[in-house]
Structure formats: structure tokens, C-alpha cells
Specification:
single chain; about 140 residues; alpha+beta; 4-stranded mixed beta sheet
């Protein structure tokens, strides 16, 4: 049985291509890619936060204002729970807690530490929610 070994084709001294030629100018070296990756991730997170902020503002306009709370979802991200001044409620999910906090800040959303007291008292549920809650209690 023959053994195989993975061979690195790049020159360790300068990242040149096989045969001693340097890499074409359009291609970035692996170290350049590693440096650019955090910048791309930061820009992507900023775009997501801006999009969530627009959605929060749209919710606030429809419901006469809004307040909220951030709730961790684990690896799935962070939920932004929104409660409108008229009692309407909804939620959005951000990929990370930092993106959720940034979106709330951009939208000017008042954040609460917990979902009890005055924030919970604002929530108005309708027949649909009561029916679902009853169905869950009855095993349906």
C-alpha cells in the first residue's frame, strides 16, 4: 500500500506560485485574505444591523412607537422582541447579539432588561394567540 502526502505548492519564503513565479496581481496572497476577512465580516454585520434597524423603524411607525428586549437564542443568534405602543408585538432575529444591539441603537429602540412589568402589560393578545395557547395546553 502506497502512502500519500499532501504537498504545499507555494514557496514558504514569499508565497510565490509553483515554478518560482510570483502570483498574478489580481490574486491576493493567503495572508491578505485573512486580513480582509474581518473587514468583510464587519461590513456584512453593519449592513444586517442597518436592515434590522429599518425593520424596527417600520414596526414603530405602524404601532405608534416601540420598545423592546434582546433575548439570546444560542447559536441561532439573538431575538429582538418588539412591543408597540398600541399593544402590537413582533420579533426579529439577528445573527449575533452585537448586530441586534447595533440595530436597536440605530433605530433608537428603548431596550428593557426583562420582559415583565410595564413592557409585558403593554402586549395585547387576540383570539388567535389565546386559541394557540389553549391548544398547546390541551396537547393540540
Amino acid at each position: 500500500m502506497a502512502e500519500t502526502q499532501q504537498v504545499d505548492q507555494s514557496d514558504e519564503s514569499g508565497g510565490s506560485a509553483p515554478g518560482g513565479e510570483s502570483a498574478p496581481s489580481g490574486e491576493s496572497a493567503p495572508s491578505g485574505e485573512a486580513e480582509a476577512a474581518p473587514d468583510r465580516r464587519a461590513a456584512r454585520a453593519e449592513r444586517r444591523a442597518a436592515r434590522l434597524a429599518r425593520q424596527i423603524n417600520a414596526f414603530a411607525r405602524r404601532h405608534g412607537g416601540a420598545e423592546g428586549r434582546l433575548a439570546y437564542l444560542g447559536q441561532a443568534g439573538t431575538r429582538i422582541v418588539l412591543v408597540g405602543e398600541d399593544g402590537g408585538w413582533g420579533d426579529l432575529v439577528a445573527p449575533t447579539h452585537a448586530v441586534a444591539r447595533s440595530a436597536a441603537q440605530k433605530a433608537g429602540l428603548t431596550l428593557h432588561e426583562s420582559f415583565d412589568g410595564e413592557l409585558a402589560a403593554k402586549v395585547r393578545t387576540g383570539p388567535y394567540e389565546w386559541k394557540r395557547m389553549a391548544g398547546i395546553q390541551l396537547g393540540g
